[in-house]
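DM from R.C. (forwarded with permission)

"hey, sorry to bug you on a friday — could you get me a structure for this? deadline for the figure draft is monday and I only need the backbone to look sensible"
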Amino acid sequence: MEIRYLETAEPGLRWFRAYYRQNPQLDLSKAINALIRAEAMLAEFPMSGPAYEDFSAVREYKVRGTAFSLLYTMAQDTVWIIDLRDQRGQRSAEVLRLHAHELRARYRTGDTPTTRTT
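My reply, with the result:
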């Protein structure tokens, strides 16, 4: 499958680069290589990541050796990257809301979250 990044992934990609540049003790080249390996894995095995929270059409694949993961969905023989998520923060919740409202119609992907019962 082809890998494509949606517009919603841009802030996550910027944060990824900034985080590694602000922390020189971390290896940016290793992190980039881990991201490339994650993309290759998803291209070959797109169902590798588990469903993300209440979004059945959104999956999450952890980027090994980093605190980041890829939130993605699949449609039209393409893996659409919604966000490069810092797993320590909540920024991705807003990205998923944007995905659900704007991108679902544009790319014909995604679904609405299910209701949790406790």
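R.C.: lifesaver. The chain is about 40% helix and 25% strand.
me: no worries. Helices lie at 10-22, 28-44, 91-107.
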